[in-house]
Amino acid sequence: MLRVVVLISGTGSNLRAFLEGCDSGSIPATVVAVGADVNAAGLEYASSRGIPTFVEPLNAGDDRAAWGDRLADAIAAHDPDLVILSGFMRLVPPAVVSRFSPMLLNTHPAYLPEFPGAHGVRDAFEAGVSETGASVIVVDNGVDTGPILAQRRVPILPTDTVESLHDRIKPVERELLAEVVRDIAARFTATTH
Ligand code: GRF
After folding, report:
1. How far apart are CA 99 and CA 90, in angstroms?
2. Tens digit of pLDDT for each residue in 143-163?
3. Tens-digit pLDDT profile for residues 32-65
4. Is there an atom of ligand 1 within 6 Å of 101 CB?
5. 119 given a catalytic annotation
6. Does any ligand 1 atom lie closer than 6 A to the CB of residue 90?
7. Is the dihedral of CA 12, 17, 21, 26 positive or negative?
8. pTM of whole model > 0.85?
9. Ligand 1 pocket residue status of 109, Cβ below 6 Å
10. DSSP run (H or E) holding 186
């Protein structure tokens, strides 16, 4: 089973879905820890499931490089095969990218390279386009600029709000992530035998 560390910043609804996929066997992975940069609500959920959690805050005035080293060490302590960002709302520090990429993935609620960054759903909505999407990428040192592993279009409906659109995108992100992790697990298993 792939050992996965998930990084979040928010509610962790995508984390919950990922854990359900692991429980059902549809995702051949086990989440060995959940980390965050803030005391994210999703951490309580992980703890309630008996999953180790950690918080590595980036406080105002903190040295980003030092934070990156702390975060990389906190992740490495759980010996992951794969690190997944799921609503982690910080630019991943170079120390983490260099330590874990390309086994470092992010889900993004837009059809990259369209609408990168922290407000992809709102930006697509406000652009007035008829469709956006969801993407799974390898994290590099840019903002959502890494290699695209999977992506799918999601329509924007005239009746949509940013929230209803995001609620329609998230399930697609989850499906794409499950597909990508299944593919990685298959290749990983093949090479480790
Ligand atoms: C997801 O759409 C993710 O792609 C984006 O933030 C959202 C996380 O939502 N970066 P949640 O915290 O998993 O509910």
Report:
1. 17
2. 999 999 999 999 999 999 999
3. 999 999 999 999 999 999 999 999 999 889 899 9
4. no
5. no
6. no
7. negative
8. yes
9. yes
10. helix 162-192
